[in-house]
C-alpha cells in the first residue's frame, strides 16, 4: 500500500487522495505578454523531475502541495499552500 | 425521544433514515424519533444484547445534527456556551449530552445524544453573524459495539483504530468501505463503542456492508431501542 502524508491528517493510503495537477506560478496577467500567458495556459513540462503538485485528501476536503519527483515517485515533503508562503519567501531572501 | 408510530407503519410526513432502504424485513420494528423514521428493534431484546456483545451495528441517523463553519465559528460557539475541542480532528462532549466534533480549524459538527438539546437550541437562533455559516447535515450515522468491532474495521478501513492508535478524543476522517467517513471512539453508557458518519446517500450501502461483515463475525443489527434506556 502506498502512503502519502496529508499535512492535516497524517500518513494515509494513497487511495484517499486525488491528484490535482502540477502547481505552477501564474505570470501577472496585467503585465505579461500574450505569448507568456498563452504559454502558461497551454504548455506543460512533461520532463520528469522534482515537481510541485496539488493533491486533495478527499475524506477531509484538504487541498495541499506535495513536492514529488515524477521519475522516482518519491515525495520529499507536503504542506498547506498558505503555511508555505512565508517559508518560500524566506528562502528567496 | 418519541415513539409514536405503530410497527411497520410509514408516517409520510416524517423523514426516513438514509439506511432504511436496506433494513426491510418483517421483524423490524419502526418508530419516529426526532422526526425521522428509524428501526428500533431487529430481533428480540435477548438476541440483540447477545449481538451487541460480539458486534452490534445500530442506525442512529435520527440523532439531531448541526454543522457550522467560518472564521468566527469558534467564537460563536463560545458565545453560546458550547464546549468545543481545542484542536482540529478531535471531539468533546458539551453538557455531557452533545457531541462536538472539530473537523478543521474552523468547522464543527454538533450531534445531540439521547436527551441532548444543543442542536435544537442553536437551530432556533435566527440572527446571522458575519463569519459563521450553517452547514446542513444529512449524515447516515452508526454505532458499532462489541468485542469483534476491530475485526470489522480491519476489513473496511486502512487505518489502525486500536485504542493505542486512535486516542480517546481523536476524530478520524478516512475511508470506510471505500467511501469518505468520520470515525471516533466513544464510551456509551459505560460501554466502548465506535461511531461512523458518512454521507446519507451512502447510508443503505454502508448499512449493508457493515451488517454483512457483522453477521459473518457473529453479530448483527441492533435496534435503537437498546440505546434508549
How can the largest sheet of chain B be summarized? 6 strands, mixed
- Estimate the strand proportion of chain B: 25-35%
The number of distinct structural domains of chain A comes to 1
Average pLDDT score of chain B: 91
CATH hierarchy: architecture of the largest domain in chain B: 2-Layer Sandwich
What structural class do you assign from the helix and strand content of chain B?
alpha+beta
Describe what you observe in this structure.
The complex is a heterodimer of chains A (93) and B (229). Chain A has 93 residues and is of the alpha+beta class. Chain A has helices spanning 34-42, 81-92, and strands at residues 3-6, 10-13, 17-22, 50-57, 62-69, 74-79. Chain A has one domain (3-92): 2-Layer Sandwich (Folate-binding fold), CATH 3.30.2270. In chain A, the strands form two sheets. In chain A, strands 3-4-5-6 form a four-stranded antiparallel sheet. Chain A has a two-stranded antiparallel ribbon with strand order 1-2. The longest helix of chain A has 12 residues, at 81-92. Chain A is elongated and about 45 Å long. Residues 86-93 of chain A have low confidence and may be disordered. Chain B is an alpha+beta fold and 229 residues long. Chain B has two domains: 16-25 and 43-62 and 138-227, Probable tRNA modification gtpase trme, domain 1 (Gyrase A, domain 2, 2-Layer Sandwich), CATH 3.30.1360; 65-135. Helix content of chain B is 20%, strand content 33%. Chain B contains five helices and 14 strands. The chains are: A alpha+beta (93), B alpha+beta (229). The interface between A and B is medium-sized, with 12 and 13 residues.
